[in-house]
């Protein structure tokens, strides 16, 4: 089956940005900040002041510094009653927005009515020096304050002023002119770029073996005993023991997710392989409530429970969808293989973003990016009130497996103007991009514009475009090729595999732990952002996804169907010349069977070489046609975005239930037909139909004798010629073997 290409506006586009200031050697850039466009900034470091004039008889003042360039103005924090304050704050003004040729640095005295002017220092921007890392930082100097007339006054200010780029080490913590409209410490902290690390996750295995000498409260009946285990907000229980005694047996595993550093004391063994750890007997304690507090009850005799508890270091804790995993290493660092390369990502800019909220009666967007690969999350700074934000930030990750995916998401920051106090506002999602590393050529810079596509209840919508530069550097090609022979997950997943239900539950717990830990960072990486990046909820039912997966299967089977149609044309002599050539090839392969496998592999080799000319030159991207996002029915989309459990009216739920029953009925029929064919094969020798089995047994005896006395090549030639016979010798009725097979009994007669 062929799927129509998506609209032109939804396609990936190659770009040609001016990376690294244009310093290029061959196919590699020479600058250390070479995957982004250089952005020029004017930096002002306000270090400290001394000998400031006093405003009253106490000889003290409440000073702060105001750095002004055109209409942009930034201020330091103020100190109370301090004549020799130290600030050590950096201000960065974008060169693209310079509105004046003079920089004014003013020292003011904080006052409830009107701040008093204490002195200022003026700089001509044409005289400001330029600094490019790795040059050492510019040493600050003392400047004498002047009044508004230019006369020297009491007090000095230590400053450093220079022109630089976003590669400057002072840039991440500097006050940025893009943040001129944001006030408050929390607002400024929420818009800075940061790097986060996911907590180290472990699987905790609790093997409940048995208990002894239990003391049931009801002596008149057999106890129905089970064990309940709790870790944080995770609670699991065993099945009820089948041995209805005071010494019950279970031998059942309960699996939890624990995060390091552990919030609660956790003194258990750690194992790296499948060797069992030692078991221990634990005394069961009884607790009573005294004055509203839970206290341990002293007993002369206590029951015991036999358990084996350990932290599993040989598993990889899945917190992402297995289809989009960015890390496949086991938890224990001792089991890690050396890295095979480095992934470099340049987040350049975005174009045509949609307004995400309203401010002062007009639409606005405060966009920032999140990139996640492995345990490392990066967050760019927030660009205020712009539909074409420019970040130009570059990040690197170590790569341990090429068959992994990096995810880049774009969000609207809703916490710059008191969003936390306004009813718990959530950051809105603008779009997401995934890039699989195995689809990239090594040591090549990919610069593309990725459409940001988001599925809404009213259909798929393009929210803008994000421009990225990506490079995958490989340190050892041999090691990377060797990775393709390794299992995808650590070996414990295959030696002691977890069930599907266990994996689903553990992944849910892992995502909850990761989102909780990252939301407690400063600035927080919020829960809705983490869940969107980790694809939480992607396992829920969706009619659209079901259709898409069905057509994906049909696309995979399309090649086999095409081969079947081609072979049917050969058998029916649609093209006599081709059929004759197939006869000749068939005779050669039957006479020389040692050529069969070499011929097949040579054919596959030639196909691969032929397709190399049309190999993909761009990374894959989200396809709206493949996803059936542009053709989904509105009710199907509304069902996909429904809550769980549902919040829709009963008549809509009834209609969707009936639709689901109809689809499930068709699937049920197909599954039943497949079961029928399998049962007919089983009935060949079961004597369920004595006549059919007798005929088949006699046929097998005759076939064994004939095949024993007849050379295999003769049998193969006769079979092939019979299959390829001319249409003149064919009948429209089904063949005898097919008629016989369809008459065999199945167990459908036994179905209610």
UniProtKB/TrEMBL annotation:
Domain C2: 23-143, 182-306, 324-450
Topology within the bilayer: Multi-pass membrane protein
Transmembrane segments: 550-567, 579-612, 694-724
Membership in a protein family: Belongs to the MCTP family.
Cross-referenced SUPFAM superfamilies: C2 domain (Calcium/lipid-binding domain, CaLB)
InterPro entries: C2_dom (IPR000008), C2_domain_sf (IPR035892), C2B_MCTP_PRT_plant (IPR047257), C2C_MCTP_PRT_plant (IPR047258), C2D_MCTP_PRT_plant (IPR047255), MCTP_C (IPR013583), QUIRKY-like (IPR047259)
UniProt-recorded name of the protein: C2 domain-containing protein
Domain of life: Eukaryota
Gene Ontology CC terms: membrane
Location, primary (coarse class): membrane
Annotated localization: Membrane
Keywords, comma-separated and alphabetical: Calcium, Membrane, Repeat, Transmembrane, Transmembrane helix
PROSITE patterns per record: C2
């Amino acid at each position: 089956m062929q799927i129509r290409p998506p609209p032109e506006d939804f396609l990936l586009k190659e770009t040609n940005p001016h990376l690294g200031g244009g310093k290029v050697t061959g196919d590699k850039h020479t600058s250390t900040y070479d995957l982004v466009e250089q952005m020029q900034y004017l930096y002002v470091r306000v270090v400290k002041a001394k000998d400031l004039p006093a405003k009253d008889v106490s000889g003290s003042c409440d000073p702060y510094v105001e750095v002004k360039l055109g209409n942009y103005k930034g201020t330091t924090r103020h100190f109370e009653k301090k004549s020799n304050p130290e600030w050590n704050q950096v201000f960065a003004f974008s060169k693209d927005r310079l509105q004046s040729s003079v920089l004014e640095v003013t020292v003011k005295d904080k006052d409830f009515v009107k701040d008093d002017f204490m002195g200022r220092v003026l700089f001509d921007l044409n005289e400001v020096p330029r600094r490019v890392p790795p040059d050492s930082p510019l040493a600050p100097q003392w400047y004498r304050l002047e009044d508004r007339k230019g006369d020297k006054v009491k007090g000095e200010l230590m400053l450093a002023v220079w022109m630089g780029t976003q590669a400057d080490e002072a840039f991440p913590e500097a006050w940025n002119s893009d943040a001129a409209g944001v006030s408050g410490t929390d607002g400024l902290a929420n818009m800075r770029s940061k790097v986060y690390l996911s907590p180290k996750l472990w699987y905790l295995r609790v093997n409940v073996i048995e208990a002894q000498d239990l003391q049931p409260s009801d002596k008149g009946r057999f106890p129905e005993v089970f064990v309940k285990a709790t870790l944080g907000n995770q609670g699991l229980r065993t099945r009820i023991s089948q041995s209805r005694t005071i010494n019950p047996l279970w031998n059942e595993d309960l699996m939890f997710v624990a995060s390091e550093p552990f919030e609660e004391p956790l003194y258990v063994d750690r194992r790296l392989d499948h060797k069992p750890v030692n078991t221990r007997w634990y005394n069961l304690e009884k607790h009573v409530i005294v004055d509203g507090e839970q206290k341990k009850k002293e007993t002369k005799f206590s029951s015991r429970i036999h358990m084996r508890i350990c932290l599993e270091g040989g598993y990889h804790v899945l917190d992402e969808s297995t289809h989009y995993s960015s890390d496949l290493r086991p938890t224990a660092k001792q089991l890690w293989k050396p890295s095979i390369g480095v992934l470099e990502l340049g987040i350049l800019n975005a174009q045509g973003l949609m307004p995400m909220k309203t401010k002062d009666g007009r639409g606005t967007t405060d966009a920032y990016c999140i990139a996640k690969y492995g345990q490392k999350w990066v967050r760019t700074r927030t660009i205020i009130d712009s539909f074409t934000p420019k970040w130009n930030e570059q990040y690197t990750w170590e790569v341990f497996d090429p068959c992994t995916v990096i995810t880049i998401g774009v969000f609207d920051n809703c916490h710059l103007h008191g969003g936390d106090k306004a009813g718990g506002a959530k950051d809105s999602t603008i779009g997401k991009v995934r890039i699989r590393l195995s689809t990239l050529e090594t040591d090549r810079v990919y610069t593309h514009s990725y459409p940001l596509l988001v599925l809404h209840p009213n259909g798929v919508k393009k929210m803008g475009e994000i421009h990225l530069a990506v490079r995958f550097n490989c340190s050892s090609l041999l090691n990377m090729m060797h990775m393709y022979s390794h299992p995808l997950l650590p070996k414990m997943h295959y030696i002691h595999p977890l069930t599907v239900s266990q994996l689903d539950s553990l992944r849910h717990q892992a995502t909850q732990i990761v989102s909780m830990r990252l939301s407690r960072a400063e600035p927080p990486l919020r829960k809705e952002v983490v869940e969107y990046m980790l694809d939480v909820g992607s396992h829920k039912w969706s009619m659209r996804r079901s259709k898409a997966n069905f057509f994906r299967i049909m696309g995979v089977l399309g090649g086999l169907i095409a081969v079947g149609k081609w072979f049917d044309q050969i058998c029916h002599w649609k093209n006599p010349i081709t059929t004759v050539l197939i006869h000749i090839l068939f005779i050669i392969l039957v006479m020389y069977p040692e050529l069969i496998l070499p011929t097949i592999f040579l054919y596959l080799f030639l196909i691969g070489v032929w397709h190399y000319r049309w190999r993909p030159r761009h990374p894959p991207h989200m396809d709206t046609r493949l996803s059936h996002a542009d053709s989904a029915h509105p009710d199907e989309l509304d069902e996909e975005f429904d809550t769980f459990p549902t919040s829709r009216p009963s008549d809509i739920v009834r209609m969707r239930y009936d639709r689901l029953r109809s689809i499930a009925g068709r699937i049920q029929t197909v599954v039943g037909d497949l079961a029928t064919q399998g049962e007919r094969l089983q009935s060949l020798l079961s004597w369920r139909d004595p006549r059919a089995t007798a005929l088949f047994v006699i046929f097998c005896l005759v076939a064994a004798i004939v095949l024993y006395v007849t050379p295999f090549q003769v049998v193969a030639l006769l079979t092939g010629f019979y299959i390829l016979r001319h249409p003149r010798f064919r009948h429209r009725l089904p063949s005898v073997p097919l008629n016989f097979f369809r008459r065999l009994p199945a167990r459908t007669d036994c179905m209610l």
